[in-house]
TrEMBL record:
UniProt protein name: Signal peptidase I
Alphabetically ordered keywords of this record: Hydrolase, Membrane, Protease, Transmembrane, Transmembrane helix
Gene3D superfamilies reported for this sequence: Umud Fragment, subunit A (2.10.109.10)
Membrane topology, from the record: Single-pass type II membrane protein
A single GO molecular function term of this UniProt record: signal peptidase activity
Protein localization: Cell membrane; Membrane
Main EC class the enzyme belongs to: hydrolase
Any single GO BP term: signal peptide processing
Family: Belongs to the peptidase S26 family.
Organism encoding this protein: Paenalkalicoccus suaedae
Gene: lepB
Length: 191
């Protein structure tokens, strides 16, 4: 009788261990798939996106289908700037756009575009231009944003390495769209 109870207990333990192992395997696979293809997180380094996103904040990036979807104007994106670094910037120019800055106003295809997210910085500059005048041709030698590329700027225009310096960002170098900041907890917000 004792050996029968012992065998049942042994089978029960083995079944429990097997079930736990399967659950752990499923969680690991789902985590890998989610991180590789759907979402990932980043820590922001630098001040180029302040005050929208601060140095040291942690953000969630939506990678789902982003490589086949055209980014929207004013999306916050993460992209591979070079082999060592990924940058976070704001899309201001889409393929086919002509753009320029004049008197601190963004013009896209000769239409003035409101950038309310820059109001904080503009107030700090007390009437001085926050974004220096430039034309697309002056900073890239192109008159329009080429197909398959976007033009990006940091929100902290005086302290940002962006398309004015590195040129257009190829769509295939975009990792994804920033969806939210989640750390520190007091600063949780969606974009």
């Amino acid at each position: 009788m004792k050996s029968d109870t012992s065998a049942k207990a042994s089978r029960s333990v083995k079944r429990t261990v097997w079930n736990v192992a399967r659950i752990i395997a499923v969680v690991v696979v789902l985590s890998f798939v989610a991180r590789e293809f759907l979402f990932t997180n980043y820590i922001v380094y630098g001040k180029s996106m302040m005050p929208t996103i601060h140095d040291g904040e942690r953000i969630i990036v939506n990678k789902f289908n982003y490589e086949i979807n055209q980014p929207n104007r004013f999306d916050l994106i993460i992209f591979h700037a070079n082999e060592e670094s990924d940058y976070i910037k704001r899309v201001v120019g889409l393929p086919g756009d002509e753009l320029y800055y004049e008197d601190d106003i963004l013009y896209v295809n000769d239409e003035p575009i409101s950038e309310d997210y820059l109001d904080y910085h503009r107030e700090q500059y007390d009437g001085e231009p926050f974004t220096e005048d430039f034309t697309l041709e002056e900073v890239t030698s192109e008159t329009v944003v080429p197909d398959g590329h976007v033009f990006v700027l940091g929100d902290n225009r005086q302290n940002s390495v962006d398309s004015r310096d590195i040129g257009f960002v190829p769509l295939e170098e975009i990792v994804g769209r920033v969806n939210m900041a989640f750390w520190p907890p007091k600063s949780v917000r969606f974009f």
